């Protein structure tokens, strides 16, 4: 009997330790997802992206947040329940002192985790009194930290949308964006916008460090998709970079912008190698620049990072180069 009690306590403790390690790694470490959260969100992402119509995109962030929270909560409850099952005296009726049933132990556990008290039951021995105090405090920490974390996630998502909308306001496609930044009379616009865009990219990149779930808030509207807008901006920058001497200030601004986009992609997509390389597809789309009398040089690693980011956000290179009927 004591062996079974020990096994249940150890099993419950291991589950709780793994759960809180994953929880604090994800919410406080600034090093991306814990292994459990990463597996949950990666699996959900595959399911969402299979829906080609993008109808689930507007709910993807909500689904990921709720699923992650539910997994943490279920693991917490499972670990505690195993410990409460380890012996008949672990939980008893407050009035009669009789051992609680399985359902009553679940009821007691939920009361404790929600910090509402003990309900109609109490710990039956000193060991579980210690455990109950720890569980109550743990439940409070998990609930309050998760709430604060997800409020910060919402703010980070809004910052991402602001970046996308800022870029799309300069042009709704690559042609308009190129026109906006390349017209001689508006050359000052590149100088004015480069600093602001870099600043917004850095803010969005920082959000990925602390809030990795942000990457799973998918957008079904092109103008509000950060990955799509950054891909368009990068394509325009590749072309513009060929039009300035390397020693010029504009070349340096463009180079700095491209580097900030690269940092954003490195931080925002953890598994780039999961996505197949498509250099021929990218080169095919870039043929449009030759038609317009411009040059767009390939950059294999950056091209793959952009391709992976687009795929992870539910877009493709056709969307990057989709244009309205107009001339360059």
UniProtKB/TrEMBL annotation:
Q: Does the keyword section mention Transport?
A: yes
Query: Keywords in UniProt for this one?
Result: Ion channel, Ion transport, Membrane, Transmembrane, Transmembrane helix, Transport
* The keyword Nucleotide-binding is assigned to this record: no
Query: What's the protein here called?
Result: Two pore domain potassium channel family protein
The record lists the membrane-crossing segments as 7-26, 61-83, 130-151, 200-219
Q: InterPro entries under this entry?
A: K_chnl_dom (IPR013099)
Q: What GO terms in the biological process aspect are recorded for it?
A: monoatomic ion transmembrane transport
Species name for this entry? Answer: Aequorivita ciconiae
Q: Which residues form the Potassium channel domain?
A: 79-154
